[in-house]
From TrEMBL:
Keywords: Methyltransferase, Transferase. SUPFAM superfamilies: S-adenosyl-L-methionine-dependent methyltransferases. InterPro entries: RNA_MeTrfase_RsmD, SAM-dependent_MTases_sf. The keyword Methyltransferase applies. GO terms for biological process: rRNA methylation. It comes from the Bacteria. One of its GO terms (molecular function) is methyltransferase activity. CDD domains: AdoMet_MTases. The keyword ATP-binding does not apply. It holds the Pfam family Cons_hypoth95. This is 16S rRNA (Guanine(966)-N(2))-methyltransferase RsmD.
Length: 184
């Protein structure tokens, strides 16, 4: 499997640099395509949060398909450098905000932006997806009224998460990847 690419939109075909190893959670082109087929044209003009940015594959795909803004949060130095390279290569600096920060602190501190989509795909097997979801439940103002939270996990990580403000409305499995969808 080569480097991931942008599947559709104005950056279609662009290859992305990735970080070797398990620091980031890569998404296959198949899963990414399925995700954006589910979102459909609603991505146009959307404000997108890629909470654990990694290589930026998902947030850059959102921008390529017409999202107005993608906010990337990445704490790891190496992943941050690769993500910055990918954003520069895509030429979308004006629509991409990259922040080197802890995702959990960011969620607690963000006051100016509200997101249409919040994508959560943290490093695998640390339970961070549940922690991020619970924190978002407490910071529900970060998601617009009809927005979605989307979680990408390995099936072995799947378990119910008790939430007050959001409910799971869809759950799709693609081989060794599950996409979970939450709304108000």
């Amino acid at each position: 499997m080569g480097n991931p690419r942008i599947i559709s939109g104005k950056m279609r075909g662009m290859r992305l640099k990735t970080l070797p190893g398990t620091i980031t959670r890569p998404i296959t082109d198949r899963v990414k395509e399925a995700l954006f087929n589910i979102i459909g044209t609603d991505i146009q003009g959307a404000i997108f949060l890629d909470l654990f940015g990694g290589s930026g594959s998902v947030g850059l795909e959102a921008l390529s398909r017409g999202a107005e803004l993608a906010q990337f949060i990445e704490l790891n130095n190496k992943a941050y450098a690769i993500l910055k390279e990918n954003i520069d290569k895509a030429g979308c600096e004006g629509n991409a905000r990259l922040l080197k920060a802890d995702a959990f602190k960011y969620l607690h501190q963000e006051k100016e932006l509200q997101f249409d989509y919040i994508f959560i795909a943290p490093p695998q097997y640390h339970g961070m997806w549940k922690d991020a979801l619970v924190q978002l439940d407490q910071e529900a103002h970060l998601l617009v009224e009809d927005g979605w939270i989307i979680v990408q996990i390995d099936p072995v990580e799947d378990e119910p998460v008790p939430l007050e403000n959001f409910k799971e409305f869809d759950n799709r499995r693609y081989g060794s990847t599950i996409l979970k969808f939450y709304s108000r």
